[in-house]
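Reviewers asked in the last cycle whether our approach scales beyond single polypeptides. To address this, we selected a multi-component target totalling 727 residues and predicted its structure end to end. The input consisted of the following lines:
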Amino acid sequence: MKQRFTLTLALMLALVTVLSACGSKSNTNNGASPSGSASSEPVEVTLAGWGSSPEEQALLQQVLDEFQAKNPDVKVKYEVIADQYMDVIKTRLIGNEAPDVFYLDAFEAPALIEKDVLEPLDSYVTPEFDTADFETPMLDAFKSADGKIYGFPKDSSTLALFYNKKMFSDAGIDAAPATWDELLAASEKLTKKNGKKVEVYGFGQAPELARQMFMINAFGGKLADDQGKATFASPEAEKGLALVIDQHTKAQTAGQPSDVGAGWGGEMFGQQKAAMVLEGNWAIPYIQSNFPDVDFGTAEVPTVNGKKGTMAFTVAYVMNKNSKKKEAAWKLLSYLTGKEGMKTWTSKGFALPTRKSVAAELGYDKDPIRGALVAGGSYATSWQAGTTLPTIMNNFNNQFVAAYSGQSTLSDALKKGQDTANKEIEAAK
Amino acid sequence: MAKPNVKRMWRDAVSGYSFMTPAILIIGGFLLLPIAYAIFLSFHKVNLLGTVSYKFTGTANFERMLDDPRLWIALRNTVKYALIVVPSQTILALVLAAILNMKLKYRNFFRVAFYLPTVTSSAVLVLIFMWIYNKNGLLNYFLEMVGLPTYNWLGDPSVALIGIMIMNIWSTAPLFMVIYLAALQDIPESLYEAAEIDGANGWKKFWRITVPQLKPVTFYVVVMGIIGTFQLFDQSYIFSAGSGGPNNATLTMVLLIYQYAFKSLDMGYASALAFLLAVVIMLITVIQRLIFKEEKLN
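The resulting structure, written as structure tokens, was:
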């Protein structure tokens, strides 16, 4: 029962240290497995990632099968971590039970790189692997301060404006908004109210930092400084974020998914409770398979303050520093992020390739729906900001919701969030 | 003379302790040792990920609490939660038990039916309630039907904690109801008969006989209720996906400990917070004991 929680916690703390003590002993004989040994037993490499749609899972399995067919000496054990991915990975890293190769979001990368639990990959790279082929900002997200590469991006996505074509033609709007003012005007026309209750929002928003960071940058604000301190309570940042808040609290032409009983933006859009949303690549197969009747188009995110902006999310494959099968792990990692593996993985459009050659071959820049997402890649703000981002994000989100629900003014909320975040960052040093 | 005695004492001691060994090992290994270790950790700055290190920092972790705004939010939420949930669930449990103790038709069916929420896993309960609390969900549907205002129960910071309160009262009250029910059977029937002869009505009998007779049980129920509410974790964890949001509205003490321990991997500070929570719960229990004892004397 819950009464036992403190006890269990104490127990876990004890267990964790015991495990880590065991771990440090076995670390001493770390290193690659003896290569070139003539054993016919295949080496088993574990690969871990978070769960995704069944279609994506099947596609990944296909890539893994192809890899194993080409490398009979390596056997891949694929694990799905269903919930709280980073908590599980960190705990398993401490206990020296971590998988050999695993997914890592760019947003968590600086912290893990700093803790020195990932294997630097520079020494494994061969000329055929062609590092220069990767999109530079995506690769930079997994580099340490001294320029070592700790992970290769497997795919990425930016945000684009999804709009419901039928609602647009019903409201007499013929083109997707290109500027934020046009977006506000269009939202006005698209919002449908029943008395005081909004039934369809013109624009569906996600009041969280991961989706709004580019709004902070739009007028020259910055999320954090070089020391990792939060700096988002500036007038410049407020100006951008006010566009989000005011549209919800004042104009009431925008709402969040939970306002209409949806779980996230893609669902809100699919259920036709929002005429426009900013979503990424992941929403395309979701809407197409769950809401086939919704006729939608995409466009680049409308310009704010005359400048283009959007968010970019990247995930890489990284190698565990304490892996005992580094040779085989690299074989897997280099196949998955190599030209061949990435081509299969991104062939169905669930995710966009991070290699220029693969992107050119698959031609997503000319795809009517994915073109807008590809175009965003050149000016997107990467979802990353140093090792303190998790703390900053937690405090920003909490306070931003307060402003979003009208409980406090935006400037008070930002100030409070920044102070709390900086206090916490200072205390954790 | 004394020799055989000593020998016998030894033999007794050896056999006694060997019988107790399993219990000592389990309690020592899984209760005392972890507690001692948590106290040890709370005076250290611990780094587990990467190079493992323990740095003695004295009372730094405890000083940090004073300046941690999120701790005060968590404490305030937890106290608010306990102040509303404990009395409500105790009264509800008592009333339900009193009703089920009457000679009703299908009494056993109701006893089982009322107990069901307690048997259900709390994770499942939360997920079902989140569906009920959905903006277009069941609860808002009923509120709208009777002309009351509707809320965004999951997203609005001002009502999110109330949502968890309702859920928890509903799911824990039956557990205490069973305890009350057992205690009610123990009240001698003669007391009620005597009161009836004196002309007491149903309400008076309940207020003057049932409630005072149940006092020791009430003490138990309130103490367990407070411990349970102070350790609220699973509901708010699932409700907010581990963040304690919206706007820290569902951030509880244990959730905060969890966040520091497993999200920030700051085991030292998390242990210090767990220590604080244990002290707070102990203090409240001692105070309650004093209050209940004092009234006993009167």
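Residues 62-297 of chain B form a domain with the MetI-like fold fold (CATH 1.10.3720.10). We regard this as preliminary and will revisit it once experimental data from Aim 1 are available.
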